[in-house]
Every structure is written in C-alpha cells, then in structure tokens.
C-alpha cells in the first residue's frame, strides 16, 4: 500500500511540474470584472463625469457614470482587476481638477463572462 502512495505522489509531482505556468495568469488577465461606484463631495458642476470618462478610456474601462439628485456621481465600471484598481484609486483620490472628493464607495468586484458595455458613457 505504501508503494501505491509513493507512486501517486510521484505522478502528481510530475503533473504539476509539466503544467504550463502561464495558463493561470493568462486566464486571470482575460477575466472581466464589474463594480458599481458612488463618489461623494463636490463632484457636480466641476466636469467630474467628463474627466471620469476620459480616465476610463485611458485605462480601457467600459461602463457609465451619471449625476444623482443627491449631489453625487454614480456609475458602473468593467475591466480587468488591474484596470479596476487604477480607476478606483483615481475616483477616490484624484477626480477632476476642481472636484473635492469626500469619499468613494464601491460594490464588490463581480466576475463577468463578457463585457456588458462597449465603451464608457456619460448618462444624463
């Protein structure tokens, strides 16, 4: 019985060693995620949506943003984890030149099979 265990351990090691290392990383890079966001502070009347659209296009993010009646800007982001991380940082800490961001709230990242949006748009 111990010889069977040794054989299966050896076989497992060989399979692990022969598996290509780039496959898991390639799958993670291709994975699309989405999240909702809302930005609070002085974010209306300061070209926040226009600058958000510009930054999203630079990063390759798709989705949308819009003003709310509460004086915030909310929207949806779609992209890779790296793209989403960069965009979230921008929304929390930078924004448009004249904006004053108090806080930004994000939903959890949700994996998507495909993009729901083809571009990043401003909704009115």
Automatic annotation (TrEMBL):
<dbReference type="InterPro" id="IPR017968">
    <property type="entry name" value="Acylphosphatase_CS"/>
</dbReference>
<feature type="domain" description="Acylphosphatase-like">
    <location>
        <begin position="34"/>
        <end position="124"/>
    </location>
</feature>
<feature type="active site">
    <location>
        <position position="67"/>
    </location>
</feature>
<keyword id="KW-0378">Hydrolase</keyword>
<dbReference type="GO" id="GO:0003998">
    <property type="term" value="F:acylphosphatase activity"/>
</dbReference>
<dbReference type="InterPro" id="IPR036046">
    <property type="entry name" value="Acylphosphatase-like_dom_sf"/>
</dbReference>
<feature type="active site">
    <location>
        <position position="49"/>
    </location>
</feature>
<dbReference type="InterPro" id="IPR020456">
    <property type="entry name" value="Acylphosphatase"/>
</dbReference>
<dbReference type="Pfam" id="PF00708">
    <property type="entry name" value="Acylphosphatase"/>
</dbReference>
<protein>
    <recommendedName>
        <fullName>Acylphosphatase</fullName>
        <ecNumber>3.6.1.7</ecNumber>
    </recommendedName>
</protein>
<feature type="region of interest" description="Disordered">
    <location>
        <begin position="1"/>
        <end position="25"/>
    </location>
</feature>
<comment type="similarity">
    <text>Belongs to the acylphosphatase family.</text>
</comment>
<feature type="compositionally biased region" description="Basic residues">
    <location>
        <begin position="1"/>
        <end position="16"/>
    </location>
</feature>
<dbReference type="InterPro" id="IPR001792">
    <property type="entry name" value="Acylphosphatase-like_dom"/>
</dbReference>
